[in-house]
Amino acid sequence: MLSFKRFLYIVLIVAVLGSIFLIYNINESQPASVQIQSGLTTEREFIETMQVDEGERPKVWILGNSQDGRYGEIYGNVRQFCEDLHLTVAGEGRLDVEGVEERDLVVFCDASISRYADLKELEGFIADGGRVILAAGLPEGDEDSSLWPIFGIREKSAGEDYHDLVFENPLLPVQPERAYYDGNSDSAQIQVEASASVYIRDAGDDIPILYTYAWQKGSVCLINGTFLADIRCMGLLAGAVGALLPDFVYPVLGVKAVFLDNFSMITSADDELCRRVYGYSAEGFVRDVVWPAFQGISLRTDTPYTSSTLAAASSEESFGAAGDALFITIGKSVLQFGGELVYAADCQEDGKVVFNQDFINQFSEAFPGYTVQGLAMETDNSFPEMMDVPGADVRFVRGKLGSRDTRLSWEEGRTVFPAATEGNSMEDGNLFSICSVLGAYGMVSHVFDVGMLIVGDGDTAAWDSDKKQIGLFESEVLDHLSWLESRTLSQTEGDVRSYQDMDYGWTKSGSRLELHCSGSAKGQAFFYHTDSRIVDAEGLIYQDVGNGYYLLRIQENRGIITLEEGK
Fold first, then answer.
1. Minimum mean pLDDT among 291-295, 311-315, 336-340, 540-544: which range?
2. Strand-strand pairing, 443-449 and 60-63
3. What confidence tens digit (pLDDT) does each residue in 460-487 have?
4. CB atoms within 10 A of CB 259
5. 41 CB burial (10 A radius; 0-12, 13-18, 19+)
6. Which of 278-284's residues contact partners 24+ apart within 8 Å by CB, and which partners?
7. Distance between CA atoms of 564 and 411, rounded to whole angstroms?
8. CA-wise closest residue to 244 among 148, 152, 132, 128
9. Could you give the CA distance from residue 494 to residue 523 in angstroms, rounded to a whole number?
């Protein structure tokens, strides 16, 4: 038996330990200040700047009219994409086939080819080995019909919009078997020769949406419709170039970034809906159900989040109410999982900015050692006043890939990194767009609006359907992208700077390809699309990512790739 003295000793120990745990649990549940310092962004190492010979980097002839409605949008997007890839635009206006070199690409950004080229000359150009991309589909009626045999077209009739698309052959590094396109395609109803290589087809009527056709020594790629009026579809153009060229090397960002907007904003309507449908308060539902779902994705796919809460708008009415305890709980967890907290701006009226001072004060009290460095823009409107958020030091801005003004830049100490896709659903067009952006820019940059995850129409709660869509984002996208580097907003500076300022070129002789780079960060990523197989490399790291694509990351100014003999 225990002595009375020893018994008292054990009771005392238990009481002390119990008190410690009780104090700890109380502190965890209280909205007390959290001492978390702002993380420092690691400076990327840049390789030597030197003069680079373009070598076999193709020049591009872009033919179209920037003022011509939807075709003008296609023209602008194609030109922007070529500039992003540092490809030289060799000529505009009207095609002069005498000035086009063997390695050049000719891209028509108008359905009417005869406006920009002599049809007989174009036929001869293709016959002699020319490579042509029809980036804006085909005109109505029989215009340019003399070229149909050269394009592999057997029949053509009036078109319509096609949305349910099937990938028949590898075109993008990651692609689903079937995906929905949410835009207007204006595609023609065509039948093509059996020898044409069809990459994408309409699921219902079997209409070719993207195909290549070899004619004599040359080749043609038709993007059947106006898809490229949407910058998110530029992966189709990158895939088309890769399908026409035996070797195509182009720079990409090589990163994955996921943004969570409006995470802790709760309204009384949200609370009422959650109590009625789930038996939870809205705050408890977000804390115990929604956030753990995102936490799981973060852990399984090594994806940190950049989480934003609205701090700037055009009117006070835009600001909701954030529960103090919930905000601290979610914010702490985001940071503990390697993420970042930033402010958001939703300014609908030019020049008018109102700051959410109550929230900014709450943030300062909860995270006294944390300086917000990022601003997530929720509209295309951009003006200097938005950047002057009290207490913040905004040096990193999340822009929009489709905005000409806020898409991608590094200058004057401020980095703009674009959100490419947004929305809580994958099946309504996002999956197609995400895979296309990945093929064009080698990145995923997607925005979830968490504030919309628990609301719906009337008595319908959105979470029941949205949790499936978030699962699809993990299984169809993130699970396939371990080869992309994870980034929060403030970690993108080196990637953007390198992508914008670099120069590159390559040459290929037999089974040896040399890639020369200048002014880029060590680890700068490239996609290499080839029918060959890499067996060795020096000065760079390579990874086979599927569908004929390799991801290259340079380590020196010159990288040497050895390909399998006979390929």
1. 311-315
2. unpaired
3. 667 878 899 999 999 999 999 999 999 9
4. 24
5. middle
6. 278/461, 278/463, 282/454, 283/323, 283/325, 283/326
7. 42
8. 132
9. 10
